[in-house]
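dumping this here before i forget
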Amino acid sequence: MRKLLSVAAVALAIPASASAQTAETIIDRAVAAYARLSSMRAEFRQTLTNPITGTTQTTSGELIRRKPNLMNITFSNGDRVAADGSTLWVYLPSSVPGQVIRVPYTGGNAGSVDPADQFLNAPRSRYTVTAAGSATVAGRATKILNLVPRRRNDAVTRAKMWIDDRDYSLRQLEVESANGLKRSIVITRFTANPQIDRSRFRFNVPRGAKVVDQNTIGAAF
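structure:
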């Protein structure tokens, strides 16, 4: 009997494994891990599927950020988004050649261009989060979470996140909008808190491009 009681006591003392965690616990730890990043670098692969046109486009790229208000996203197709500390520059030659959008930027509107910020900034106040199993992404064990907006949202009707079992970083993201457009982003390599020179965030307007000033911007991609 004493042996049985000792075994039971040890079992109770062992923390719950990742598989036993609730969806709320996982998302809260992902939010905390994201908040601890002073800088980050992520290589990714993005696939856009448009059911209206019946087309699918896949690009790769790199996203770097440095708090509080520096960001740069470069795509293999030549598109780029850069935040230099006061201004957000959006240059999409693949779809709108010869135009650069300029928007005042302090970091508060990061969710419009950085998917991680969109879903890891107070997500439980805006989404109902439920567990959806496990999977391996780029060799990393993850837990899958479903997110459904608490209020009607034309920009996002549903989302799915793959959260790393070990460091709670975002490893994959799928987002679907009301018009059926689907975006899938897979993080192929992630570095937390790297040293990034400020020059990496500088944007030079391409020669001949027209600069269009806007006060706000919707989702860039």
